[in-house]
């Protein structure tokens, strides 16, 4: 280690701070409530087992690194579980292959409408199907979270495969379940341990399960690719896979470079599916829960929607006329902190940053939660306060420290699509339904909600349905986690809000307006 880098070992001599940094709910608290950044400043080093990690905390440090030194901080750290030698796809790749795949995905998703009318239509179509299912469930309870998860998956499916699936299609259910389980495994403590000590931890069952899922996903996708290949029509590009297959065809004719191979297609599709499904679904569900807790804000959103949009379908173009709704959506995204620690970066070259020398190849964690909760940027960082995004006249204002999608070279590839989805899904659902907490429940531990993804990855959930795992929430009346879990359910139309129980869960309620 070089002389002028700050260097701190954290407690455990074997795994260092790895488990403390990664596990629930430390990611939320690391930058603010722990003493780390208060004590060591906005750039500090921790050792995760043998691995040196530079942590960036707060808006200034994160922005200066990811935007100001975009190239230096622009590589991705690849984990052992993804295979060190594999450099394919978009999320877990670097160099020319990453550049080519990212450019290709962005251009083709744009061509099929990302940020444009065509994808807006896909989101609206999915939203209609979703609310139709809510309505249809007259008399029955419905797991709203599961349906929302299917809806966001289907938006990605339409863009990549060129068609949506029925929610009860076994092919689709297994695609969604695998993506979800894969994510849970990836953040599980034992897989993190494997990433630190791959040779010693070969035996870890979660590592094997992760790689078995990868093998199944590969098999399933290769079958879907084969079907698409058989029906490929160069005159009619159905989605990203068709576009890729056409590039491969050009490659066979010697026209393009060699990054267009099956492995890159497979990994890119898996990346888009997993990066684009759970993130958006969790944001929408978290938003509904925040609004169930903040009824006045929910009513204000509905009032604005009724006044401006009236009964018709909300479209992205309405956003500029809906400043309060827009502010609420932004505040939901700020509060949910989907990727509290970002996705780990790595330095592409030696760099001197904030006076510290950081050598090429050092792992870097840009703590996005520390940006979204930065006490020097937000008036009320820990409260749900839509006024963060409103001026004194009620107009929408952008905020620099709003970086849920990160920034710089690795900024979320799906930002445009995700923003559109969150806006249309939430606004349409709120036009048609209202949400409230069950009788007798006055508060939800919303902190547990956003980090459930991290806490629910204990080793033995594989036999439970995915929505149960991902979206079951801990109720917290006393500020201590209860055993009871909470799932958002749909109650029959026009039925009074009640606190009916479901097994040992306490559902919140959703009823039609
Ligand atoms: C609310 C929803 C979403 C949030 C908050 C979110 C956030 C993020 C964040 C924080 C990163 C890491 C950026 C970095 O490394 O600095 C990321 C990367 C990525 N996201 Fe998203 N994302 C969302 C939705 C989506 C969607 C819908 C898609 C797909 C269309 C997507 C595709 C990706 C990809 C491919 C990457 C990797 C980019 C790269 O390494 O070059 N995301 N996202």
Automatic annotation (TrEMBL):
Gene Ontology biological-process annotations: organic acid metabolic process; xenobiotic metabolic process
SUPFAM superfamilies: Cytochrome P450 (SSF48264)
Keywords carried by this UniProt record: Heme, Iron, Membrane, Metal-binding, Monooxygenase, Oxidoreductase
One Pfam family of this chain: p450
InterPro entries noted in UniProt: Cyt_P450, Cyt_P450_CS, Cyt_P450_E_grp-I, Cyt_P450_E_grp-I_CYP2D-like, Cyt_P450_sf, Cytochrome_P450_fam2
Principal subcellular localisation of the protein: membrane
GO cellular component: cytoplasm; membrane
Any one GO MF annotation of this record: iron ion binding
Gene3D superfamilies: Cytochrome P450 (1.10.630.10)
Subcellular location: Membrane
Cofactor(s) needed for function: heme
Stated family: Belongs to the cytochrome P450 family.
Protein name (record): Uncharacterized protein
Organism: Echeneis naucrates
Source lineage: Eukaryota, Metazoa, Chordata, Craniata, Vertebrata
